[in-house]
Amino acid sequence: MKEQIQQLIAEGRTEDALAMLAQQNSDALLLQARFNNGKKQYNMGLIEFSEWQRTQAQINYAALELANSIKTTTAPAGNAPAGNNQQNQGGGQAEQPFKVFISYNHQDSFAMRSVKGFLEDHNVKVHVDINDMSVGESIQGFIDQAFKNNDFVLSIISRNSLLSGWVARELTVAQVLNKLNNNWIPISIDNSAFDNNFFFEANASIDLKITAQRDQIKKALESDLDISAFTDELKRLQDLKASISSTIANLKSVLVIDINGPAFDSGMMKVVNKIRSRT
User: Which of the following CATH numbers is that of domain 97-279: 3.30.70.660, 3.40.640.10, 3.40.50.10140, 1.20.1440.230?
Assistant: First the structure.
């Protein structure tokens, strides 16, 4: 039952999935009502398509969470699929789940949590800074170890991430490493990377931040204060401006998986299949 519901959602058949889920969990009735109300509002032109997309993505994620809570009936030992055994017939231990590090901008935390939940529902171990980074730990050191100790790096591409100095560094490293071991998975939650106007908007935005940072440095110097608190950020912004053109060009040259709105489930299944294909 759980697998059927997950498959229906992956195919974009949310209504069918909710109907099946309602037979097992009454909480799904609330999701059905929310879905029907959202669909009605969109059909009547009361909400934009982008808002309807967000609503569907939220409902799909909640439905997957409910589906995951359904207890699976244990099959007789003689009929259990080999892939589900804790120990294979040769006596060896079951395969360990793949490990994925999610690179994202904190303004995209909702998207990150949706991606994280979907991957964990499909037996993928996820590492993110909010859970795995220790208080006081070097950010750059954490990133270096995350890239080293995980099987895949999954980058959430958005307007926010492309304008983030830290994420830009992670993207650059991921793109380089991908040429060596093909372990980078870029996913998109908006169309910024492929919008030509965004390139000019991004450069203008970065220029404003650089100017503001230089003003802070000038103010500190005039007051005979240490400027190290500002120079690191200035360097990140300068690096970001220098690299944003090549970053966007590189993203246009590879397959970036779209998970925006109703494409979330089908896109995330592509991510899971790519991870599983590395055996």
Answer: 3.40.50.10140
